[in-house]
Amino acid sequence: MPNYENFFAFEYWQYEVVRHMFAFTAAVFAAAFVYFALTMRQVAERYRLASIISCVVMISATLELFLLWLMWNRAFEFDITTMTYARAEGFIFANGYRYANWMIDVPMLMTQLLVVLGFAGRDMLSRWWKLMALGVFMILTAYIGQYYEPQAAGIIDESAFGFWFWGIVSWIAFLVLLWLLYKNVEEGRARMGGEASKLMGAAWTLMWITWTIYGLVYLVPGIPGINESSTWIVIRQGGYTFADVTSKAVFGVILSYTAMTLSKEPERNTTRKAA
Ligand code: RET
Q1: Residue 77 resides in a domain
Q2: Distance 214 CA to ligand 1 centre (A)
Q3: Any stretches that span the bilayer, and where are they (predicted)?
Q4: Which residues pair with 269 in a beta bridge?
Q5: Is the CB of 248 under 6 A from ligand 1?
Q6: Residue 157: how many other CB atoms lie within 10 Å
Q7: In 3D, which of 55, 156, 150 has the Cα closest to residue 108?
Q8: 178-225 confidence digits (pLDDT tens)
Q9: Residue nearest to atom 14 of ligand 1 (CA)
Q10: Is position 274 within any domain?
Q11: pLDDT tens readout for residues 142-171
């Protein structure tokens, strides 16, 4: 079924705020792309992959948000008699692009984290594949679950089992993923200098909080009391917007800054054996 947004009529401000959030996010990513591309040369070669990854993340996210913006524009029409935006015949809005984008960005962001933490070679690979497998599994399962949103919101009178089943499976994968990430961050930080270790501590806090927001936002259509509210659709898209800007752009800035800090310490520019 289409996402539950399609079954609502929006007040003028609600529709506009969502549209502007999409435009804002796309613009932030386009600007951040320029930042990462221009600061790349200040990062030692050993960490440069982190800057390249930020560029990849920014391009894919700019495109994704632009597509959401286009779809949001096309899927609703203003009705002057009711002063609301309601769905245009024959068009729908879909959050599916977000999931497609996460399939690129979640693996990229975790790879970037491992690179800046200083893992390399076989050790890196054995850490990497577990994170990737869990991340992809988490996204795919929730991608299936989100097709049951109208059932979960009670808009369509059918079983909401799919929404909850896949949502819970995805949440379990997420919690395991967070635990693994945490262990990697702690091991990596233990081998870093004070300044870089502090920065990575901040990056980790930002990471788990913003990633959790995505998980909470998934649940909104299933929560009685708020799942009938079009204002909550604005809040939900706002949650995605906040999490997008912080988990991709701000996180990338902290990591690239950490990489620049590490690059200034001469002994870290040589390849180190895995611990
Ligand atoms: C889902 C479904 C419900 C359970 C959880 C989720 C978590 C999603 C996450 C997404 C992260 C996306 C990022 C994108 C950046 O580019 C799939 C919404 C926990 C953590 C970081």
Answers
A1: yes
A2: 5
A3: 20-38, 50-72, 99-119, 131-148, 160-182, 202-220, 240-262
A4: none
A5: yes
A6: 7
A7: 55
A8: 999 999 999 999 999 789 999 999 999 999 999 999 999 999 999 999
A9: 102
A10: no
A11: 999 999 999 999 999 999 999 999 999 999
Find the radius of gyration of the CA atoms of the chain: 20
Ligand 1 pocket, mutate which of 60, 138, 223 (most atoms under 8 A from CB): 138
105 lines ligand 1 (CB under 6 A): yes
Cα 65 from chain centroid? 12
Give the span between the Cα atoms of 97 and 76, in whole angstroms: 18
> What is the model's pTM?
0.93
Query: What CATH number does residue 163 fall under?
Result: 1.20.1070.10
Does the Cβ of 138 fall within 6 Å of ligand 1?
A: yes
Q: Is the pLDDT confidence value at 7 over 90?
A: yes
Segments forming the whole domain that contains residue 112:
4-268
Residue 20 forms part of a structural domain: yes
Is the CB of 220 inside a 6 Å radius of any atom of ligand 1? no
The DSSP H or E segment spanning 84 is strand 84-87
138 CA distance to ligand 1 middle (Å): 8
Q: Write the residue with the smallest CA distance to atom 5 of ligand 1.
A: 215
**How many domains are there within the chain?**
1
